[in-house]
Amino acid sequence: MITGTARLKLSLRGVVKEFGPNRVLDGIDLDVSAGSAVALIGASGSGKSTLLRCVNLLEQIDDGYIELDGVDISEPGRDPNPIRQRIGMVFQSFNLFPHMRVIDNITLAPRKLKPLARDVIVARAMELLDRLGLADKSGAYPDQLSGGQQQRVAIARSLAMDPQVMLLDEITSALDPELVGEVLDVVRDLRESGMTMVIATHEMAFAREIADAVHFLDAGRIVESGPPAQVLGEPREARTREFLARVVKAGRL
Amino acid sequence: MALAATSTVVAVGLVVWLVPKTSGWQNVRQAFFNWAVFRRTFGSIAKAFWFDVQIFLWSAPCIIAVGLLVAMARNIRNPALFPLRLLATLYTDIVRGVPVILWITMLGFGAPALLQTREWYGRFIIWGSVALVMTYSAYVAEVFRAGIESVHESQRAAARSLGLSAGQTMRSVVLPQAVRRVVPPLMNDLVSLQKDVALISILGPIEALRRADIWQDRLFSFTPFVAAAVLFLAVSIPTTRLTDYLLSRERRAMSGTVVR
């Protein structure tokens, strides 16, 4: 893992995404240096999820470009599959494959896409499960697990492809409060291992603790960016202050 | 469990006790449930029934394969392959809209008449089966399509986000879930096919229905038809029950808790 000087891992310039008449992303500029964690905050509908889906090429952007390691990955006509293998994504609603056991959920993509022997892939998946405290769940089906366990499996499924960037899309929003902690522990662990991450979240305290930079999105634009202490502690923009006041009222800070 | 058993015994008991008391029962029994006729005709009808089973056995896998292909063609999202999608849509619309018996007559008599050959592909039976495969694959394609569309978009997103191609996603993630969901309606169509196989009798071969018909002419009894019906039931009921059982067993294995 390369650390030290702020080598750019991911870079968005003027990214626009429209759904019909709705401009969901309205000229996004965002830089993520290798090994750093960036938090995206903002109300529902502000464009956080769409931003992540665009980076993972699940949505095609209408203007601007997205670079991964200095290469434009958003060019139309480029095969998205090899790029997606380098970008892991975890979803709010887990999206595990319900017809497969935990171990098969994790090994499906490596088995199809990596030139490794099956037993090597399975052994590495077991290591991952062990690291996430799920070693005894490898034979279970997703429906037999708690939400927190399911989300940890989803993280393991992404990690099994050895991604260089992880996109986390409100991964604790669908969890009972007492299950949030176990998932955030995993993210902390990832952070310590030097994984580059873009995290869309409603957990302000967590964003403050883990992120190198926080970006506040409103109506498809990044309104305010900076270190967490500044954006969350002394926001300069009125809209950021309004949003944070609502969050405090809801008891999430 | 005990409650279900008691209520069943009472209901069946009432039917068995009341029906013979109706006025026309003796005549009905003579015509439809004549044990001597049944014993005399059952063997030869069963032998003819083997013919129905054979047609079913080679048609069903073809139907499932063609139906699956048509369903996938109708789900193609690549704009360059739109003609394929259009073709699949036309196929289901046209084939489904014409009665099965019309397809069997048209192809079963028409194709051999055109081909004029003694080779295997000039036989009525082959073209009768083709007609069955055509019509049923159109129905089955719609069942599969409903199943494919019922798999939530987020499942595709998860698979694609890992780097799997559209084809790999379809094979490993969407289809396995879709097929599990449509097994009951699929069985519905297969049970229906198993009966419609008898329609091939209009092309001339002596299968169970035709054999029963011949017996009926000779013995002036409808019992041979009942014998044929028993044979059809003997196949369809166990298969349906078996699939139900396998499905529920799998569901229990995957979920852990079952809500009553």
In total, how many domains does the architecture of chain B comprise?
A: 2
The radius of gyration computed from the alpha-carbon positions of chain A, rounded to a whole number of angstroms, is: 18 Å
- Name the helicity range of chain A: 25-40%
List the secondary-structure elements of chain B in sequence, H or E.
HHHHHHHHHH
The overall pLDDT of chain A, averaged over residues, is 92
Distance between the termini of chain A: 33 Å
Give a verbal description of the structure:
The complex is a heterodimer of chains A (253) and B (260). Chain A is an alpha/beta fold. Chain A folds into 2 domains: 1-78 and 165-253, Rossmann fold (3-Layer(aba) Sandwich); 98-163, no CATH class. Chain A has 9 helices and 10 strands. Chain A has helices at residues 48-55, 80-85, 102-113, 118-131, 147-159, 177-192, 204-210, 228-233, 238-249, and strands spanning 8-19, 22-33, 37-41, 63-68, 71-72, 87-90, 165-169, 196-200, 213-218, 221-226. In chain A, the strands form 2 sheets. Chain A has a 6-stranded mixed beta sheet, with helices on both faces. In chain A, strands 2-1-4-5 form a 4-stranded antiparallel beta sheet, with helices on one face. In chain A, α3 (102-113) crosses α4 (118-131) and α5 (147-159) runs parallel beside α6. Chain B has 260 residues and is mainly alpha-helical. Chain B has 2 domains: 55-205, Orthogonal Bundle (MetI-like fold), CATH 1.10.3720; 206-244, no CATH class. Chain B has helices spanning 2-18, 25-32, 35-74, 82-97, 100-115, 124-150, 153-161, 166-196, 208-219, 223-255. In chain B, α9 (208-219) runs antiparallel to α10 (223-255). The longest helix of chain B is centred in the first third of the chain and has 40 residues, at 35-74. Chain B starts with a helix and ends in a 5-residue tail after the last helix. The model of chain B has no long low-confidence stretch (mean pLDDT 88).
